[in-house]
């Protein structure tokens, strides 16, 4: 990568490119970070340049449609065909929906940055959110490659994937720990939470709260893949990550709201009603 630049890559960008968990995921390619937006300003993306680039890509791009799902079936990463109503596709679809919700939150933050003075803390949160999108792509790869039945294939007492699919294994500790570190850093700068808050914080904060709610649903969908079957089909590290991610999104929603001086609404009992 260095030969394409006349300057040194930022440490955070280099860490993404050097991380095998990220670089092996399809979503790593083509997802711009806020640092890349700084390195390549919007003015450089002229209509002529964009149209010529798009035309060049179209010549070498494989067709997006395959027609293989026209009968209501879809494939897992292992090649197994299942109905599109299968719980595994419900989980995969919700994880995809979560990544899209995070993209919407990033777009709202980006627009709000045009109205306020941007600071490194907000840009740092944006980089974290884009990093999370790449992690969610890895979550999808893991969920789409169900663990085998204990005792079958290469599994013994604990289910393990065929070595052919070992590259989709989701890391057990590091990824959830990074979320906890980010949560702790933001919490130190936030006012103490002494009462319930309502989803709020303008478009940036509200979008992150919406992503949090979708994250909880994704977690429920994934957990069901383990509880409604005779044996677990999803790694426990995936469940742990999604559980911690909803906490992160809640904290990030409050953090962005405070940094952008947006209103945060607290739960209060309506007049004339008893306290819950």
What descriptors fit this protein?
single chain, 276 residues, mainly alpha, Hypothetical Protein Ta1238, Chain: A, two-stranded antiparallel sheet, 9 helices, globular, disordered N terminus, CblAdoTrfase-like, transferase, ATP binding
Summarize it.
Residues 151-166 have a biased composition (Basic and acidic residues). This protein has 276 residues and is mainly alpha-helical.
Average pLDDT score: 78
Q: How many angstroms separate the termini?
A: 58 Å
Structural class: mainly alpha
Indicate the proportion of strand residues: under 5%
The CATH topology comes to: Hypothetical Protein Ta1238, Chain: A
Radius of gyration: 21 Å
Number of extended strands = 2
Instruction: Please tally the helical runs, counting DSSP H or I stretches of 4 or more residues.
Output: 9
Which sequence of SSEs, written as H and E, runs from N to C? HHHHEEHHHHH
CATH architecture: Up-down Bundle
- Poorly predicted tracts of residues: 1-9, 20-44, 154-158
Would you kindly provide a written description of the structure presented here, covering whatever features stand out?
The chain is mostly helical and 276 residues long. It has one domain (6-259): Hypothetical Protein Ta1238, Chain: A. Helix content is 53%, strand content 2%. The protein has nine helices and two strands. It has helices at 11-18, 20-23, 34-39, 47-60, 87-113, 120-143, 174-187, 202-227, 236-259, and strands at 73-75, 81-83. It has a two-stranded antiparallel sheet with strand order 1-2. Strand 1 (73-75) and strand 2 form a beta hairpin. The N and C termini lie far apart (58 Å). Mean pLDDT is 78; it is low at 1-9, 20-44 and 154-158. This is Corrinoid adenosyltransferase MMAB. GO terms for molecular function: ATP binding; corrinoid adenosyltransferase activity. InterPro entries: CblAdoTrfase-like (IPR016030), CblAdoTrfase-like_sf (IPR036451), PduO-typ (IPR029499).
């Amino acid at each position: 990568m260095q030969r394409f630049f006349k300057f040194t890559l930022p440490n955070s960008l280099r860490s993404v490119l050097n991380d095998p968990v990220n670089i092996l995921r399809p979503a790593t390619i083509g997802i711009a970070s806020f640092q890349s937006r700084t390195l390549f300003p919007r003015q450089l993306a002229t209509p002529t340049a964009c149209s010529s680039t798009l035309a060049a890509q179209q010549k070498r791009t494989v067709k997006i449609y395959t027609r293989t799902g026209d009968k209501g079936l879809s494939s897992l990463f292992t090649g197994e065909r299942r109905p599109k109503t299968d719980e595994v596709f419900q989980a995969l679809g919700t994880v995809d929906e979560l990544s899209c919700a995070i993209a919407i939150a990033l777009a709202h933050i980006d627009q709000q940055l045009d109205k306020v003075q941007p600071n490194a803390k907000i840009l740092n949160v944006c980089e974290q959110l884009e990093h999370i999108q790449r992690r969610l792509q890895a979550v999808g790869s893991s969920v789409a490659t169900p663990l085998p039945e204990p005792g079958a294939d290469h599994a013994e007492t604990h289910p393990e994937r065929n070595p052919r699919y070992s590259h989709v294994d989701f890391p057990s500790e590091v990824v959830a720990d990074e979320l906890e570190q980010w949560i702790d850093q933001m919490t130190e700068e936030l006012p103490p939470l002494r009462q319930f808050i309502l989803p709020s914080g303008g478009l940036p904060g509200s979008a992150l709260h919406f992503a949090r709610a979708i994250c909880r649903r994704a977690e429920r969908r994934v957990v069901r893949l383990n509880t409604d079957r005779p044996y677990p089909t999803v790694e426990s590290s995936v469940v742990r990550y999604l559980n911690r991610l909803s906490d992160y999104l809640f904290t990030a929603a409050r953090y962005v709201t405070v940094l952008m001086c947006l209103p945060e609404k607290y739960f209060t009992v309506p007049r004339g009603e008893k306290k819950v």
